[in-house]
Design goal:
The structure is a single chain. By secondary structure, the protein is an alpha+beta fold. It folds into three domains: 3-137, Creatinase/prolidase N-terminal domain (Creatine Amidinohydrolase, Chain A, domain 1, 3-Layer(aba) Sandwich); 159-295, 3-Layer(aba) Sandwich (Creatine Amidinohydrolase, Chain A, domain 1), CATH 3.40.350; 302-588, Creatinase/methionine aminopeptidase superfamily (Creatine Amidinohydrolase), CATH 3.90.230. Helices cover 34% and strands 20% of the residues. Helix 4 (95-103) runs parallel beside helix 5 (119-129). 46% of the residues are buried.
Length: 592
């Protein structure tokens, strides 16, 4: 079926079930950011492939609500689909619920599949619709009957990581979790989020592209721990190891039976942002529910010394791959055909040559000229641009290694750069340095660091529409909570041991985009009469293109930071390079 035909069929089922509006979130039963093919419902229904958005369908309108990162992409991909782009004013806000409350009559029915919406989202929609007299049905799956060739759930093998890699055993992590549960006065905890599961059980897999996770749930009590997973994914040795750690392994589908079997007096902890509404409503029938962020989300955000040491080593491997890639690019562009897609493939090859490489941590964003102005651009055969020896190229990429996760953005000059491009680039670099060199009191929140980073751009009346930084997992999801550096007042303090990106940008639609990104580690800095102060250690090791810098826009301290950083990059990477590569990197990291 075409997307128009799918929309017509969906409306037919809506009429048959007396549903006035149907909501399709971008999610799965684990409230994942990136989805297995089985749950890419929005892409199947509308053609939109972005990782954030919601479809809302009535009999006379079908819209995709998404944020500014995807406006251009959505306009292109929705053409001829029957869906229209609705631009969100606030990122992730369920503004479609307000629209439904205004346009639907009292007594109307709005439906969605409760497996694909978080508890927090479902309640936010309820708050908008109930005062308008609109009923909500959260147990309707209208896509499965229409999606005849729907991909099966992934069945790839999973594996366990040893304590030498993770720095902590599953037994140790379970003990820590149970101690926290006791403090919170809860006697059971349901975990649905895949990265929390991966961290707790030291398990990894490939059920979701770019994220080394396995589909599963966990139910933890004071004396039991059950992992609900497709048992066939684990070899016998792994099952034996988990059993020895006090973990029972049950089939993936049995989690619903386990929730039904909870004692009536159970106090169950769930994370409302990482648990689907269907599981919540099921558990509510037998347990008292406490809604809080998963304790493991806080635990895994603070890396232990073993994880930090592995990450530093991983940054050297990634830096070598990137050095060889950018050297190849500089020496090849204009002589051989390179396109955005082929460039991304070549970068993967350089990373794959490094020991411990598992895959990419997200789809590479290779944006040449105007495509660089699309923060989440992904080249397609239709958009794939050939590179020329002129203009700006933005490359945002990352790798998954057994010893860590990387995420880096660099912009390089391919030739004939304008003064305007040089100015914008220098201001973005200045912003990145401001964020990286911030010294801040213990208890500082991400929105405060977001503002510090943006100030050099604000001083010149420039800004960017995305956040400044996100947490990064240890051989886990490249986007990790609970902390984030953006304008939202997220009440999570930055703690020593957290790994976060700092990635300010500037985008000129139709012309070029600039973003410079490093990963940083939060560290203790100094004890003073005014309390404890923290700072950042920059982890990423890759040169920053100095050919684009207008020194007049930088203060001495910015230049000193850049020269010091480049000296460290050369010192760390040069022993791993051959003579020709060392000469090239020496030129790229020369002091300015």
């Amino acid at each position: 079926m075409t997307h128009i035909e799918k929309l017509a069929a969906l409306r037919g089922l809506m009429a048959e079930h007396h549903i006035d509006a149907y909501i399709i979130p971008s999610s799965d039963p684990h409230i994942s950011e990136y989805l297995p093919d089985h749950y890419k419902c929005i892409a199947w229904a509308s053609g939109f492939t972005g990782s954030a958005g919601t479809l809302a369908v009535t009999q006379d309108f079908a819209g995709l609500w998404t944020d500014s990162r995807y406006f251009v992409q959505a306009n292109e991909q929705l053409t001829g689909s029957g869906y229209e782009l609705v631009k969100l004013k606030v990122q992730t806000a369920p503004e479609y619920a307000e629209w439904l409350a205004e346009c639907l009559p009292e007594g109307a029915v709005v439906a969605f599949d409760g497996r694909l919406a978080s508890v927090a989202l479902a309640k936010a929609v309820q708050e908008k619709l109930f005062p308008a007299g609109i009923r909500l049905n959260s147990s309707v799956d209208l896509l499965s009957p229409l999606w005849q060739d729907r991909p099966a759930l992934p069945a790839a093998a999973a594996y366990l990581l040893g304590e030498a890699t993770t720095g902590a055993s599953t037994e140790n992590k379970l003990q820590r979790l149970r101690e926290d549960m006791k403090r919170k006065r809860v006697n059971a905890h349901l975990i649905s989020s895949l990265d929390d599961l991966a961290w707790l059980f030291n398990i990894r897999g490939s059920d979701v592209a770019c994220n080394p996770v396995v589909l599963g749930f966990a139910l933890i009590t004071a004396d039991t721990a059950t992992l609900f997973i497709n048992r066939r994914k684990l070899p016998d040795a792994a099952l034996t190891t988990l059993t020895a750690a006090g973990v029972e392994v049950a089939d993936y589908e049995q989690v619903e039976e386990a929730l039904d079997a909870l004692d009536p007096g159970t106090t169950l902890l769930i994370d409302p942002k990482r648990t689907c509404f269907a599981m919540y409503t099921r558990a509510l029938q037998s347990a008292t529910i406490i809604e809080q962020t998963n304790p493991t989300t806080h635990f895994k955000a603070v890396k232990n010394p073993v994880e930090i040491a592995h990450t530093r080593e991983t940054m050297e491997k990634d830096g070598v791959a990137l050095t060889r890639f950018f050297k190849w690019l500089e020496e090849t562009v204009g002589k051989e055909t390179i396109t955005e897609i082929s460039l991304a493939g070549t970068l993967r090859q350089f990373r794959a040559a490094q020991e411990g490489f598992v895959g990419e941590s997200f789809d590479t964003i290779a944006g040449y000229r105007a495509h660089g102005a699309l923060p989440h651009y992904k080249a397609t055969p239709q958009s794939d641009s050939p590179l020329q020896p002129e203009g700006l190229l933005l490359v945002d990429s990352g790798g998954q290694y057994v010893t860590g996760t990387t995420d880096i953005t660099r912009v390089v000059s391919l030739g004939n750069i304008t003064d305007a491009e040089r100015t914008d680039y220098t201001l973005v670099l200045k912003a990145m340095i401001e964020g990286s060199t911030a010294v801040f009191p213990k208890g500082t929140r991400g929105y405060q660091l977001d503002a510090i980073t943006r100030k050099p751009l604000w001083d010149h009346q420039r800004n960017y529409g995305h956040g400044t930084g996100h947490g990064v997992g240890f051989f886990l999801n490249v986007h990790e909570g609970p902390h984030t550096f953006n304008a939202a007042a997220v009440d999570v303090a930055v703690e020593p041991g957290m790994i976060t990106s700092i990635e300010p940008g500037l985008y000129r639609e139709g012309a070029y985009g600039i973003r410079i990104e490093n990963l940083v580690l939060s560290i203790d800095h100094q004890e003073t009469l005014f309390g404890t102060f923290l700072a950042f250690e920059t982890l990423t090791l890759c040169y920053i293109d100095t050919a684009l810098i207008d020194k007049s826009l930088l203060d001495t301290r910015h230049i000193d930071w850049l020269n010091s950083y480049h000296a460290r990059v050369y010192e760390a990477l040069s022993p791993r390079l051959d003579d020709d590569e060392r000469r090239w990197l020496s030129e790229k990291t020369a002091a300015i």
